[in-house]
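Hi W.,

Here's what went into the run:
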Amino acid sequence: LRTQRVEVSIELRKAKKDEQILKRRNISLHVREENLSLGQDKPEEIIHLSLEKIVEAVNGNNPKLQLLATQATRRMLSRQKDPPINQIIELGIIPRMVEFLSYADNAALQFEAAWALTNIASGTSEHTRAVVEGGAIPVFISLLSSPHMHISEQAVWALGNVAGDGPLYRDALINSHVIPPLLALVSPVTPVGFLRNITWTLSNLCRNKNPYPPLDAVHEILPVLICLMQHEDKDIITDSCWAVSYLTDGSNDRIQIVVDTGVLPRLVELMACTDVVVMTPALRAIGNVVTGTDQQTQAAIDAGVLAVLPRLLRHTKPTIQKEAAWTLSNIAAGPCQQIQQLITCGLLPPLVELLHKGDFKAQKEAVWVVANFTTGGTVDQMVELIRSGVLKPLLNLLSARDSKTILIILDTISNLFMAAEKLGETEKLCLLVEELDGLEKIEDLQNHENSMVYRAALNIIEKYFSGEENLDLEPQTGQDGLYDFSVKKQDFNF
Amino acid sequence: MELSDANLQTLTEYLKKTLDPDPAIRRPAEKFLESVEGSQNYPLLLLTLLEKSQENVIKVCASVTFKNYIKRNWRIVEDEPNKICESDRIAIKANIVPLMLSSPEQIQKQLSDAISIIGREDFPQKWPDLLTEMVNRFQSGDFHVINGVLRTAHSLFKRYRHEFKSNELWTEIKLVLDAFALPLTNLFKATIELCSTHANDASALKVLFSSLILIAKLFYSLNFQDLPEFFEDNMETWMTNFHSLLTLDNKLLQTDDEEEAGLLELLKSQICDNAALYAQKYDEEFQPYLPRFVTAIWNLLVTTGQEVKYDLLVSNAIQFLASVCERPHYKHLFEDQNTLTSICEKVIVPNMEFRAADEEAFEDNSEEYIRRDLEGSDIDTRRRAACDLVRGLCKFFEGPVTGIFSGYVNSMLQEYAKNPSVNWKHKDAAIYLVTSLASKAQTQKHGITQANELVNLTEFFVNHIQPDLKSATVNEFPVLKADGIKYIMIFRNQVPKEQLLVAIPLLINHLQAESIVVHTYAAHALERLFTMRGTNNTTLITAAEMAPFVEVLLTNLFKALTLPGSSENEYIMKAIMRSFSLLQESIIPYIPSVITQLTQKLLAVSKNPSKPHFNHYMFESICLSIRITCKANPEAVGSFEEALFLVFTEILQNDVQEFIPYVFQVMSLLLEMHKNEIPSSYMALFPHLLQPVLWERTGNIPPLVRLLQAFLERGASTIASAAADKIPGLLGVFQKLIASKANDHQGFYLLNSIIEHMPPESVDQYRKQIFILLFQRLQNSKTTKFIKSFLVFINLYCIRYGALALQEIFDSIQPKMFGMVLEKIIIPEIQKVSGQVEKKICAVGITKILTECPPMMDTEYTKLWIPLLQALIGLFELPEDDTIPDEEHFIDIEDTPGYQTAFSQLAFAGKKEHDPVGQMVNNPRIHLAQSLHKLSTACPGRVLSMLSTSLNAEALQYLQGYLQAASVSLL
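Here's what came out:
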């Protein structure tokens, strides 16, 4: 059976480093400062105001002071280290800043306010909530259509942060019709930098589960994403791949929507990209697709995934190895025709290598590949598997420090024995297992603390390395002291 | 029960009585305690006693009783009453930790166990303060208390090492980490600091090191499932300290004991485990630290002595290196020639040395020595670890390592040559080194199966092994003799045959050695050589090649059984068996003497059978003697009966359970040797064989069935005439067997023999009942095994009594029964039948149903005719199971299916496969074609029209093939 990406609600490890960023603060400046200077007489006028002064100016009616105060706020929020988001929120000026967003006649103020709010929304959930509860969503959405590109770009960014907070705000944005004006910004003449922001925001609109984004929204966004994926800019490609990876991380009908766009060949092409940043989300997306139905998996195979996987299984980065092996494990969970393609495309040698010397995380997934293979494969395919030398590294992993992995290996060994029985080659397999020091390991596992593990080991030993049976029913003894031969008739129906 | 002094007093009395050696006093007291344990306050009374009783025995007894009480009662099982009342539960949880911590060690251990049992059920949800309570104690500064907490924590957390990942488990671990990881880390640091402050205080150090061991164990448990964020962030602290602890030494912690590992060894050993855990699972994060650990562990190995107390540490440490050196990205840590040389010289070679302890075992505890050395139960030994390291290093550095060791081997051999009697251990190490270097894969059955091509095994054999074995004195340097013999044994597939032939007389000679290990190895080596395969599945060593040695071989083997310590030596007995099997008729001249010796042995060991393998091979040898002799001279069976029956009678009368299954098998073999009517001596035994008490022992069933089959084959008519009243009892046995899923196939063996051999009229009245019984099993608990046997049986019945008789008896049990069985059982399941003879019986039976059963042609059963034919063609065309079972000569006790201590099937008592349709039908496909032809002649047009309308094309094509082969056509 194919396994969905496991939803770990509990994580002991550090948060993963190669995930896409959920929220971003705008701290890169120079380009923007220049843009800003177009609407301003003096470009770099740094003024420091006390917090009290800021509150006073923002709440006052002097447009010049309003601008200065808002700008000062934005500067504080844009500094590299420890932006005082909490303090700014506590000032209670967010509603006022939201109001500034609608001052269409004061572009400079609109922009500064948008920027400041963007950076507030980039913080924790609580921070984002402060912005949303300040009423920012509808105003930002209308700013998407602002005649000033730098303002609409800032709005895109702010909305991206809001969407990134989670499914609740994401759907609030979608329900406020964020998508049409956002998509309208995508055109052949849109500058690359702007396009990056749009792509990132779109990806956040595709992200998160419980619930998934509404299907209508997905249908709306997807064609644009597919176009963006053809772009030559690396960041745009990467973020659109992330978006697709989110859309495929779900039920089969959601996967189908993506498959129907015909994007799989492009994803596979990107999976083969040497740049890890691009490869990671593309692999993720394809990995998700093959958790789907046999047909969906076949679509990924037809797109050439099997030709790319060997290289990824041999990748130096453990997380890539692991993800590739996970993908392969789901292909191996398919019908025997797909397993055959896996063999034909030469996946067994890199699989064996990975089992042998991969990182432990990847080895665990590789064990699943073998386990699934032996569950669905034909006898001939199992023979092929054994020939590829899988047994040695597999048996070595019986000394892994992970009960689940050990159990899966034991199940796999049972599967292999069942195949061997069909071929009448049980004894050969017994010898092979013993030769590779597997017997000793399995015997040892009969003392394992985990009862399922020791039972599985015991079972193999009893069945293939010794052999015993159990009894069941009983008759009676007659008067002569011998067994009584007597039967009561009943109605039979087989 | 109230918490009163009176009750405490009563309880004390009863607890005391439970310690009484007299069961008349002890049992009632135990009963009483069980009867009151359901009362409220009972556990609290126990806790009070274990704390406050004046007598230490009562304290201990109360603590043990308390722990057992918790073990039996704490768990709340769904749908069962809660056995401990809630207020007691609360009181126990509130008091047990401080009580445990303030108790002396003996009681502390019991309470700590109890806490972990409670914890397994209640922690963390129902015992939320436990963690805080424990962590708070870390501040106490009292290391007796701290160790108590650590021990409890260890017993609570160690399950993280083997349980499957689950949300529930990980939630618990996370909770534990949040509360425990930081305090544990601080405690770790503080303890290490205290160790340096108290570096000169032996008793303080002991306590502190006990803490460190427990902390290291907790580290292992907490890091087992995944690398926790906390420990990743604090890896520097932990690993740096672990590393320095590995290199630490303190005279005060060294123990004088040579056997028992001291605290320092235990700690370092656990640190090796921790490092190995990280290296295996968290390689990416651990990489920066790994080289340091490799160096430290290797230095540790270089400086650790040969004493037994270091064994676990050394083997753990070596295993760590062995697992790391196989990893491609750490190859560089080892590849320098100097490093390799130094590992070989300082780590591997010293740990391969034959130590005083080994020498002691060789002489005084040979059985254990043999088990370890020969059967590989040496997992934790130093030699084994060193051997694994050699194998690991050879993965990348086979050439250099072989080169380095060759130099070593040569110099050790030279040392030996200078003064053999002093330096013989050098040669032992040299042989061991060559062996571990050369062997890449090994099985019990074939010895070494893959060898290092860089080692010239034959040359070493000729130059260094043979000379030792050729020496005139078999008792000189016994260890080296054993080494040499073992060398031949494990490299038997690598050394050329002519060298093996040279070795054989040398091995025979060493059967006389006084050393148990040496003559045992000699016997074992001979046995293994005799089991080697040559071309055409024959033995490599032929009887002709052995001809010159027959007498001396048999003499020495039987003489070896008289050597002290080897009177029941299974290796020797197995060698006897294998020699008989190999030599066949050339042993006949020696049989009179051999059988006398074997029966004497049998008589002696039947007093107290203790060596199952020895006994098994002894009976095999007896069977071989009978078979080989009677094959040449069938009349000889009488003399065997004469020699054996006396002993057999004694075994049966004394009910020597281990031997009875063997006796039945030998009797079956003897009975089958008789060509004429069954002798009356056997008939007298027949009623006794039906006694239920015999059939209640599972081990008796297969040989008894076999024996009854022999009775039926040779004496069915005698039974029908002289013992007709026993037929119900015989069928009762069948019923007994058929009722059991495990034994039903045995029931069918018996039934098949009854149907095949008994005169039909003698079983007429029981036939219907037999089928009803089978249908009952089929209806209520059918298994594939049962169905397979059932199908074979009904087809055999059909062959013996005719298809019409089969249909009639089925339909007389219940209308349309025959059709139901055809449709639901025969047609869908027939493909499952396996075995050549079984398939043939089914084919012939079904052919009869198709062609000799009128109701199949003219009743509603007609619709089943085509499906049945199709099923039969399917049976024919299934891929044939063409595996040839091993010839019995090669069979090993471990290979015998169904081997268990209760029943051991004797390979050499084995009966030939019996084919009841052998003469009647040669080729069942042709038989089908001919039968169809006959049928179509009887009713022209019918068969053809049925075939053409409904048989599928593929089946039709096969059928046409059969018709062609039989040169017949259908009308």
